[in-house]
């Protein structure tokens, strides 16, 4: 009977007075989807016979080339292997009374006869279900959309942490304040330790860069694998966006590392590898844009057919524009990071008589590109994720939400990636920068602070050179950090900046 909303239970709708399964044509069920009063409940029932494993076999294609509004099932209906429990539930909810209570064997026989001897009407029935019930079907528990390792809550938390850390640490490479950050103490009060936060940040950059590099290289490699292992274009697209997001953070942190740490060849090689993979990823992005949508995406309206500039598919064309814009911003970020590289920095112009020259200002502007355009790139991809996320939730409902709330191995790995740098930062903040650096020196090495804030490692006695009994040569475990205000730019043993003997 009709309820308050005007919908009717399909079992109560029997205009042809069907009284037995033998007199129930499958075309009768097709009519249910053209009746406003029975369509909603009929779609719920029909979803039972189209689980994900079978839906992918329907060979759904546009009925007219270029028109994605009407889809057609091209597969043989007899090839659809429907489970008995699903078939009985389908019959109980959709067959008219009294045949909706038929035995399991009778229902199975009816379905077999309908799909073998009445293939035309059976195909029309399946096509009608796909076209009419996509909204209900796409939001049901019968499908799964979204890989948890890409759209899961753990990955969402990990990328949010990455965004925050990249933004905060990129400020350390912001051109106008680099020299201010490098100064460890105020000249008018050298004993005042008011730079512990900045020193802790600089001391953590090395570990953070290594962690982000490992995370990003795994994401980039996984993205290439996703293109060949997944049939869902949404997963491939999100993986592309995530890779570009992570690559941007690597370049931002590389700029910070080069601005404050000693040059190590492996760090430059790491950035080169990330840059090469990112360029290759963008150069082959068209393969994802032209990737054939999965059957679920095809039916649910988020990936209809083969993509072209004239298809007019809003998901494909509007959302893909984020990737080229983000890549352009990434290129500007990389150019700015090069200004901080020690090899390039040797050509850095200086002030003339304390005044900023045009070349000096332009160089500082270049040094600021990673902070400015890197942050802009992160915002672009954050908008890309949020916009696509909302669209998927609206389209798939619980089917997408259950993937979003699922934890996968990759998500745990992503979260644990940030543990070492966060612990190091906490150690530096609590113990103080001097104790933090002491704890990281090899056995048998002392250190002193230079006036410019850098750390000087000095080997202990005995030395091959004259070794006066200064504090920095005391036995390990009994020495204290020399006070920076009493140490000149050369250490007390008489060695200059670069000639101190090393063990």
Automatic annotation (TrEMBL):
Bias kind Basic and acidic residues: ranges: 473-482, 492-503
Region of interest (Disordered), ranges: 473-503
The name this protein goes by in its record: Uncharacterized protein
Top-level taxon: Eukaryota
Transmembrane segments: 150-174, 195-221, 241-259, 271-288, 322-344, 365-386, 406-430
Swiss-Prot/TrEMBL keywords: Membrane, Transmembrane, Transmembrane helix
